[in-house]
Amino acid sequence: MTYSIMEQVSICGLRAFACKTERTKTRALLAMTKAGGRHWRGMTASDLDAVVAVAAEVHPDFPEEVAIFAERLALFGAGCRVLDMGGGIAAYLLSHPWRELEPPPLNVPLGALPPIPGTFYIHDLALLPQARGTGAAALAVADAIRLAQGLELPNLSLVAVNASVGFWGKQGFSVVADPRLGAKLASYGSDARFMMRPVAKAD
Ligand SMILES: CC(C)(COP(=O)(O)OP(=O)(O)OC[C@H]1O[C@@H](n2cnc3c(N)ncnc32)[C@H](O)[C@@H]1OP(=O)(O)O)[C@@H](O)C(=O)NCCC(=O)NCCS
User: Fold this and answer.
1) pTM for the whole thing?
2) Is the Cβ atom of 132 under 6 angstroms away from ligand 1?
3) Which residue segment(s) compose the domain that 78 sits in?
């Protein structure tokens, strides 16, 4: 089949338009993906099922009942956040003020927050694989640091599992080996490490 010059010009134009549209779509998708890493918002009770589904996928070795998540949300909602990447919840942060060097055992309710907390405790930060490497995790840590600052707490602490010590190290946390921790780490597995960072840190 042969085309006139005008037809060829118009086919080229259409192709160029189609390519441009594809490029625009790809750019928009990339932007959405990156922006998705920034869509942390407060968790609500209606997010709990999705949050538990993320937990089941990310932490198959550390199962916790939905009641544990619900209790943290009720006790300290400001520390419970989710990452909504458009297609659903892709990550969550659970954090709350707590007593220093007393990591709560897994899958056990807190009961109540301490009247005089000594640390801001990150119970869990869990990202589905598609949310990793987007910078979203560091944003959640920055949120936790801001909350700790607001509460005038001197430090943040957590138990690092799943070989995540390297990630937390990059967020300014250091491993603390203290005899008082003893059996308190038992429910977190043998490779668990207790880590702390001062709220204010010279970077
Ligand atoms: C741990 C977790 C929150 C980190 O989030 P992430 O999006 O994968 O991390 P990022 O890509 O933002 O990494 C930030 C930096 O930490 C490093 N890092 C990430 N995970 C690491 C790990 N497990 N060990 C060593 N370094 C790590 C990255 O290389 C990166 O370094 P850079 O700044 O020099 O480039 C995420 O991988 C996750 O949810 N893992 C499963 C659940 C889990 O173990 N949570 C921690 C519970 S205590």
Assistant:
1) 0.85
2) yes
3) 40-198
% the chain with pLDDT above 70: 80
100 and 178 in a single domain? The answer is yes
User: Rounded to the nearest whole angstrom, what is the distance from the C-alpha of residue 132 to the centroid of ligand 1?
Assistant: 7
DSSP letter at 200? S
Find out whether the beta carbon of 142 lies less than 6 Å from any atom of ligand 1. no
Q: Indicate whether residue 161 lines ligand 1 (CB < 6 A).
A: yes
Average pLDDT on 164-171 reads 98
Q: What pLDDT digit, counting tens, does each position of 31-71 carry?
A: 344 444 459 999 999 999 999 999 999 999 999 999 999 99
160/88 same-domain check: yes
Q: Could you give the strand order of the β-sheet that contains 80-84, starting from the edge strand earlier in sequence?
A: 40-42, 80-84, 89-98, 119-127, 155-160, 193-198, 174-175
Residue 121, phi then psi, degrees to nearest 5: -100, 125
Does one domain contain both 50 and 118?
yes
Q: Facing residues of 158 across strands?
A: 122, 195
